[in-house]
Amino acid sequence: MNIIISNSSDKPIYEQIVSQIKLAIERGDLSEGEALPSMRHLAADLRVSVITTKRAYEELEKEGLIRSVAGKGFYVCEYNTDYLREKQLMMLERRLGEIIGEAKQAGLKCGELVEMVEALYGE
User: Is 52 in contact with 7 (CB distance < 8 Å)?
Assistant: First the structure.
């Protein structure tokens, strides 16, 4: 697992860890039942406090993305693909809303934006 921490980010370190693990699960880079690094090991790799990795794992566990097995560590949970797809669609809608706002500010018509999207999409 490759997590990159940015000290210049506005997001707290634990949120950066959470979002990158979430993304890896959503993409399928981390599969159901796969073991995550121990909190201590991840903290050492990222050069952060164990408290930070503990908080990240707790957040992921609250969301039902990982589970703790006593004495063994943390594992990726079986996840609902419909739920993950819905989350991805919500993220895309938010980002598209921002892009549409910028397109309107630039004076683009809806048809022009659609043409641009179609050209970039490649179909």
Answer: no
Which residue type occupies 97? G
Amino acid at residue number 1: M
H or E element, residue 117: helix 110-121
> pTM value?
0.67
3-state secondary structure of 35: strand
Residue 45 has pLDDT above 70, yes or no: yes
Straight-line distance from the first to the last Cα atom of the chain, in angstroms, rounded to the nearest whole number: 33
Q: Which of 1, 23, 19 is CA-nearest to residue 9?
A: 19
80 closest CA partner among 19, 26, 36: 26
With residue 50 as reference, give the H or E element that holds it: helix 50-62
8 A C-beta contact, residue 24 and residue 32: no
φ/ψ of 121, rounded to 5, equals: -70, -30
Give the separation between CA 123 and CA 81, rounded to whole angstroms: 26
Token representation of residue 53? 């990795």
